[in-house]
């Protein structure tokens, strides 16, 4: 901290400073959880914690609409999507930490992170270029935050807004194309997944594999979950085997 | 009046650095993806802070667009991850070292 840096209470009332401090601690703890938690599901929940802390900070900074969007889109949609994929793929096993491919990777990573931190903090603590005030529209003054944001989005930023609609359509199409099972390899994979059951014969171990080959999402999910549960019960070797077998059970949503 | 802007910027710097370290340290591709989201959120916090400091609505509009792009990015990225996992590659980023399937 440079000597000229203002104190936490310099320009804020005590409730504001307290809110900031609590939200900041929540954010940092959640961020550390994302990095340090071994289990990806726990990491995703830590990410939720950080996102909520940032939403609180958005409210504190008079960005009410963005705070709501932050909670709805990020914690409501994006993290849920993460959790879906984690559980669909069955990778919610603990990461093996001993397998270090690059020697000293952690040290280098930590050094790089500290370098980035020092650089950005230095920039944040010293004077920054202020630029023009209220170039596209004032935030203060009468009117609600949503009204100001909406006016800006639909006037000054109308073209980017329209482009985002194209982006979203492209993303949906891309996700469908990427997650679709290739049609020509399907029979071979289906036969490999369920050697015991003939296609269309609901017998023995067959149902999960058969229905997975017919692309019924719920049956595939159930099969994947069952296999994963079995893998968790076993030891480390069983986990590895379960992860290797897992992709065949996966059915795109 | 809330806390001075430099405190928010420092917090954003801390979050961004944690995201950088996580991206470099972790091997699980999904967790690496979460670290990217962490860095995006740190940048969002900076945008909102400058929007308040400069009294300009443009910073909040930028966050709005970042949210949209992040949603699209997550959808495509997780689609890629699902496609990679279907080819019997393991859970770590080191197992996916060739682009050809």
Dominant shape of chain B:
elongated
Order of helices and strands of chain A: HHHHHHHHHH
Round the Cα radius of gyration of chain B to an integer and report it: 17 Å
Helix residue percentage of chain B: over 70%
Helical segment tally of chain B? 3
Mean pLDDT of chain B: 86
Structural class of chain B: mainly alpha
Count of DSSP E strands of chain A?
0
Backbone CA Rg of chain A: 25 Å
Percent helix of chain A: 55-70%
Structural shape of chain A:
globular
State the total count of DSSP E strands of chain B.
0
Q: From N to C, what is the helix and strand string of chain B?
A: HHH
Span of the ends, CA to CA of chain A: 50 Å
**Multimeric state:** heterodimer
Which spans of chain B of ≥5 residues are poorly predicted at pLDDT below 50?
none
Please name the defining characteristics of this protein.
heterodimer; A: 253 residues; mainly alpha; disordered C terminus; B: 101 residues; 3 helices; elongated
List the helices and strands and how they pair.
The complex is a heterodimer of chains A (253) and B (101).
Chain A: H1 14-36, H2 40-60, H3 64-89, H4 105-125, H5 145-154, H6 158-179, H7 186-193, H8 206-213, H9 217-233, H10 236-249
Helix pairs in contact in A: 1-2, 2-3, 7-8, 8-9, 9-10
Chain B: H1 5-25, H2 29-54, H3 58-86
Report on the structure:
The complex is a heterodimer of chains A (253) and B (101). In chain A, helix 2 runs antiparallel to helix 3, helix 7 packs antiparallel against helix 8 (206-213) and helix 9 runs antiparallel to helix 10. Helices cover 67% and strands 0% of the residues of chain A. Chain A is mostly helical and 253 residues long. Chain A has helices spanning 14-36, 40-60, 64-89, 105-125, 145-154, 158-179, 186-193, 206-213, 217-233, 236-249. Chain B has 101 residues and is mainly alpha-helical. Helix content of chain B is 75%, strand content 0%. In chain B, helix 1 (5-25) runs antiparallel to helix 2 (29-54) and helix 2 (29-54) runs antiparallel to helix 3 (58-86). At the A-B interface, helix 1, helix 2, helix 3, helix 4 and helix 5 of A face helix 1, helix 2 and helix 3 of B.
């Amino acid at each position: 901290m440079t000597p000229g840096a203002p104190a936490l209470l310099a320009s804020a009332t005590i409730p504001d400073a307290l809110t900031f401090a609590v939200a900041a601690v929540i954010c940092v703890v959640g961020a550390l959880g994302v990095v340090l938690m071994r289990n990806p599901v726990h990491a995703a929940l830590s990410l939720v914690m950080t996102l909520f802390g940032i939403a609180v900070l958005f409210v504190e900074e008079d960005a009410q609409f963005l705070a709501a969007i932050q909670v709805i889109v990020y914690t409501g949609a994006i993290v849920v999507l993460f959790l879906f994929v984690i559980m669909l793929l069955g990778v919610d096993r603990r990461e093996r930490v001993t397998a270090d491919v690059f020697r000293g990777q952690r040290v280098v990573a930590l050094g790089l992170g500290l370098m980035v931190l020092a650089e950005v903090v230095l920039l944040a603590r010293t004077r920054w270029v202020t630029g023009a005030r209220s170039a596209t529209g004032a935030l203060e003054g009468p009117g609600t935050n949503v009204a100001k944001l909406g006016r800006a989005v639909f006037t000054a930023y109308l073209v980017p807004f329209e482009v985002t609609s194209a982006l979203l359509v492209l993303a949906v199409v891309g996700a469908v194309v990427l997650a679709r099972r290739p049609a020509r390899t399907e029979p071979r994979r289906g036969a490999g997944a369920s050697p015991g059951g003939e296609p269309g014969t609901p017998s023995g171990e067959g149902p999960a594999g058969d229905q997975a080959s017919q692309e019924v999402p719920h049956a595939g999910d159930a099969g994947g979950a069952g296999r994963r549960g079995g893998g968790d019960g076993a030891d480390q070797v069983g986990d590895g085997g379960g992860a290797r077998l897992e992709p065949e059970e996966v059915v795109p949503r | 009046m809330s806390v001075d802007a430099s405190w928010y910027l420092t917090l954003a710097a801390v979050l961004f650095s944690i995201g950088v370290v996580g991206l470099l340290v972790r091997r699980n591709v999904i967790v690496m993806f979460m670290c990217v989201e962490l860095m995006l959120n740190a940048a969002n916090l900076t945008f909102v802070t400058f929007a308040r400091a400069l009294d300009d609505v443009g910073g909040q509009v930028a966050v709005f667009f970042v949210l949209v792009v992040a949603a699209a990015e997550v959808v495509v990225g997780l689609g890629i991850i699902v496609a990679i996992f279907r080819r019997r590659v393991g859970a770590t980023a080191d197992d996916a070292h060739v682009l050809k399937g």
